[in-house]
Amino acid sequence: MKLRRLDLENFGIHTEQAFPFAEKGLQLIYGRNEAGKSTLLQAVRELLFGFAHAGSNPFAPDSKSKKMRATALLQLKDGAELEIVRRQGNKNTLSGTFPASEETIDEARWQELLSGADQQMYQHVFGFSLQELATGEESLKEANLDEALFGGGLGRLHDYKQLIKSIDEEAENLFKSRGQKQKINGILAEIKGFKAELKESSLRPAEYEEWLTQAHRCEEELTRLQATYDQVYRRQQHLDRLKRAHPLWIELQTKQQQLAKLEAPSSFPADALEELSQTRNQAKKLASEIDGLARDWSRIEKEIGEIQFNAALIESSEAIRSLVYGIKEIRGYRRDIPIRQQERERDLDEATRILRRIDPKLKLDQIDQFELTFADRNSIQQLARKRQRVQTELDSQAPEQERLEREIREMETTLAEIPVKSQQLVDRLKSSRQPLADAIKRKAELEGTISDLKMKSTQRSGSVEMLLSGKPNWEATLPVPLEPTITKYEHQLQALSEEIRGAERTMRETHEELVAKRDELRRLEQGGELVTKDQLDESRGTRDTSWQALRQVLLGEIERPAEDDLQSQSAAFEGQVQQSDVMADQRYRNAQLLAEHQAILGQIATLEERLGARQQHVANLNEKHEALLDDWQAEWKSCGIAPKSPREMNAWRAAYLDLVQIHAEINRKRVDLTPLDQRIEATTMLLIATGELPEHVSTTEMLSWIDSFLREAETQREKQTELKIRIQSKEDERRSAAQQQEKRQQQLAEIDARGREILTVFQTLGNVDVEMASELILAIDEIQGRLASAAKLDQRIADMQQGLADFQQQVQAVLAATDESLEEMPAEHAAERLGTLLTEAESRHARRKELEFERQVTSQTLESRQAELAELEARLAKWRKQVAVSSDEELESVSQTVRAQQKIESEIAAKESELALVRQSEEPEEFLAALTQLDRDQLELDLTEVTREFAGIQDNLASANQQLGELNSRLREVDLSSRAVIAQGKIESLQADLSDCLDRLGPLLIAKEMLARAMKAFREENSGQLLASISELLERMTEGRYVQVEHDLEQEGGLVLIGPGDVRKKPAELSTGTREQLYLAIRLAYIRHYCQGAEPLPVLMDDILVNFDDDRQMATLNVLAEFDTEIQIILLTCHQPLVAKVQSLKGENRVHRLDGEPVVVETPKSKSPRKKSASKSSTPSLFENA
């Protein structure tokens, strides 16, 4: 897939901009900073995979009325062109069309074309900037390249990542190891709960088994009654069908008897009556049509006989048409002959007039004596023109010579009046002017710098002197601590303060927690009476002692006490038992409260211990903080300063050292001022000694005076030089003009001599010069032209008169051939009449041909219709003979009989169908036999008896169903009251659901494991091929510095680069530029491998060469330019030197500018000879320490 054109609307800086792209070669897009290169890269990313939401998209327009839109023309791998439009929105944001086939595509079809690539992979592999390139392995891992290549290698399975994602999502929806909302997790939790409930539930009642037995017996009785019910029901339905079928069977017998009485020929067709009617109607129609055709034939024959015309006119049609076409020309002849005769007379008169103007004595027949050759005529005309031109130039040059004499005298006077400056003085001023100006400028700069430094010192000295005990001595620097020392104290104090604050916060939290626990214990003790274990044991001991005494009395081991004592003892024991139970119940009810009470007591003890430890920790930290502050004070003791916090002292130290530097700089500037003042003073004294410089002039005025003096001297010198040059030029012009005048005089004499030699033919006309001869030649030419025109007109008149005579002869010949009497008419009128007669004759002749053709067609149609009528009569005669009748009426009667027979047969078939519907599924033979033997009265009796039996069985079924319903109701009540039955049923239902879920989960886990194994095998299979491709690309990029890339055996997934001499380096040991070249080679190898099994995607790289030196830049550009021709590579840059380098590459490489300006073809600078140190890149490096 290659970009051929990209149109962006409202995307970042590109509001309405079009980008054309070439089909072949490396393409470089150049633009300055903020011209929109990164925006263009992101636009291509979002064109392919969709715009980000406008709210979070930094490239979205500010106005809500404007929407992002991108239109692209793409060329696919097979050569087909595709135009797509990506718009801003939530769904259906892409549409496209194949222009050749007008096939449309949507988002789903587009994803198929992308072959499973996603935006993350494209951003890190195909469309990446220096940031993605520099991150190296992390960027490649995020792109999931192995998965993309694996998808392309498994039979076009390009949605591998989506497949894995779908499997994981579906599996996680079913089960997750520690999940709660997943379906299997939920089912397992419910089963666990119901099993616990099942353990605690009670058993079924005693009657449950008896009720089950009775219910089984009822079900068996119902089964028996149902079988009897079905048998009686079938018997009842059979009798009912016989009752309903009997009338139909009687009607069927009647129809069959009626059919037997009808007699008709078996071979006669059933539809003979309709066909007979149609045949007879068709015969009548044909007879009527035959009569009409006969009348038409007679009419046509009569009309043909009435048509009359002159056949000779048609035979002479070509000659007549020729005469008609020539009528216009003949009439023109008659009109033009008088006009041409008048024109001939005018030409002869004009020739005579011109000849008399030359010489009244001459005649027209004498004009030939003045004939000149063509060469002489041309020579005379050229000599006349040349003489006139030379004479004009001769006359015009006289004033010009006078003007030159006057200007030369004026310039010589001006030159003598210009004053002259001393050249020695001018040279001395020129040599001293620039050093003086530089010294003055440098002095002003130093004085300004010193002023600024003093102002800066005044502004900063207040905060610095605040901590000093006296006035600072800026030349003796105080021994202030170093910045790392201050930073160390700052970090230690800050860390210690943070630790103290954290310890105090923890101590407060512990104290607050202890107070809360004490309050909780107090509320728990106040909330109710708690029975301790000792109290319960004491009560139970008293109860057991009383029981032992009563037991001994009951067993006779001791003497039986009095009855009252025994009753009171028994009553006391009963009270003790009840009190022990109450205390046990109370302790059981308050067991949780007692446990909480004991737990809170333990927590309070723990918190008190923790609080003491944390209070001690805070005290230790405070002591440590005080000791660190004492050490901080000691660091500044040698400076005599009481320090503030480390952060403030760090700032004070920087300000103090800045002031020291400022004062040192002021002293250095003052030292630099001294030689400048000396130089200015020496130059001033030199100028005063010349006597030209006025006294009491400042340095600035002195410099201005020198400039003015030098300008004045230069102006005077330039004026003198200019006047001398002009005087010399004017003198040259004066000499040249005099020479030209002499030359022109000689030319005039030569022209006159040559003319006299040629003009001997004009001697009879007197003294004729060159100019007069030119006019005579023109007049003679005009006379000869007039005479030639008159001769042509004579010939034209004779031709037209001959044409009139020929036309007259042709008309007479046609009249004689056609025997038409038109001799009295003029020739052209007779021709017109012949044309009219010819048109009428041709029209009548054409009408006769039409009628003859119509007569032939009518005759053929008449014969055809007569034959059809004879065929119909023969068909009727055949039918009459077939049924042995002599007339059509008898034939129609037979047809009606056949129709009645057909009707009865269809009624019999309908009755048989009704009878089959009533019979339903019973056997036809048995059913018809039963109908044949049927006794109507016996049928009614049997049907009544069966109906009564059927009603009794229904009552028994209802009674049995009622009894079974009562038993089932009792069982349901027992089941609903039994938690065990309910729990067991739900467990069984949940186990069924669990089995279904496991059936779904198992294939998903197996599929994922199979894909993982296939991915591992794919990596092992393609690893060598990819490494070979990476090695080849890296060797070319590094110009042979590294020739091979291998796996790092010490680190899984790592790489090792091998150079000449078995030099081995890991990526971390490489420079920034070389490491980026490695990552670029990896990407290009992956791109090449990926595009072998998928649609190639356009590759865009944004300023990835900034860390490459010049040689490796050129090597990398050659690699990109010679990369796979099916993969489009577009390089974005803001560095001008890359433009010339790309232009110097071989092949069809293109350079575009983002600002739309034309690209200037540049030549890269020649390489300087190599030095020992490595050459640096012409582009700025982002990593200076690489």
UniProtKB/TrEMBL annotation:
- What Pfam families does the annotation carry? AAA_27
Matching entries from InterPro entries are given as: P-loop_NTPase, YhaN_AAA
Parts forming coiled coils: 208-235, 486-527, 590-624, 710-750, 855-889, 936-977
Domain named YhaN AAA is located at 1-208
Q: Which UniProt keywords apply?
A: Coiled coil
Q: Which domain of life is it from?
A: Bacteria
Q: Does the keyword Coiled coil feature in the UniProt annotation?
A: yes
- Where along the chain is composition biased (Low complexity)? 1175-1186
Enumerate the residue ranges of region (Disordered).
1156-1186
Q: What is this protein called?
A: YhaN AAA domain-containing protein
